[in-house]
């Protein structure tokens, strides 16, 4: 499967963002197009209200992605703010649209970015912690959003649910060592799970860029720098099978008991 990772700096004008998406994806030869997190409407400043920006799943943003998918004859994954039961705190949601324009599935970000001095939970609601895997023409893709990368158990749950590729839209905030964390975590999730990782990130003043398609051995098949643009690469089932034969770590897993403390039976020392 040929994958296109779209790297761009979204703003707070959804129509302008859609214009940029259409420009960057025009004429792409890809079966899967991955857009960044919050590509419908950026987070803005820490005081930007996200509730008024949220849309329903049958709103103009998803409708536009549906038209894009049909026009490009490709599956499209992208991030939006979805209305929730809390008018002030919408969901941070990924939508997956098939080449036929039909909405295939959604994933509401489970791990909100309350880290590095930022509090995403002040403005957004967390989704339920459940693995979301979607079949895209025979490729089983597991969905993660940005900060989810820091939780290896989330990726492993997706792989246990059948994911062969992890799709990771992100708006990875710049900062000391943050770019290094991004690259390390994308490669680590690929290596430890022997899967492809297709990570499409926002760029610009606030975000790190560096979108990457990493293969099951941790090799960057395609990678971007800091600028807006598109990078493409191939997800190859034979490469996946070869990697899992050479590195059968998933077959070697042992069940580890939870640590119950120094006086507990599980994990205690004599």
From TrEMBL:
CN hydrolase domain location: 1-237
Annotated keywords: Hydrolase
GO molecular function: hydrolase activity
Region of interest (Disordered), ranges: 244-270
SUPFAM superfamilies the record matches: Carbon-nitrogen hydrolase (SSF56317)
Keyword set includes Hydrolase: yes
PANTHER family recorded: DEAMINATED GLUTATHIONE AMIDASE, NITRILASE-RELATED
Family: Belongs to the carbon-nitrogen hydrolase superfamily. NIT1/NIT2 family.
UniProt-recorded name of the protein: Carbon-nitrogen hydrolase family protein
Record lineage: Bacteria, Bacillati, Actinomycetota, Actinomycetes, Jiangellales
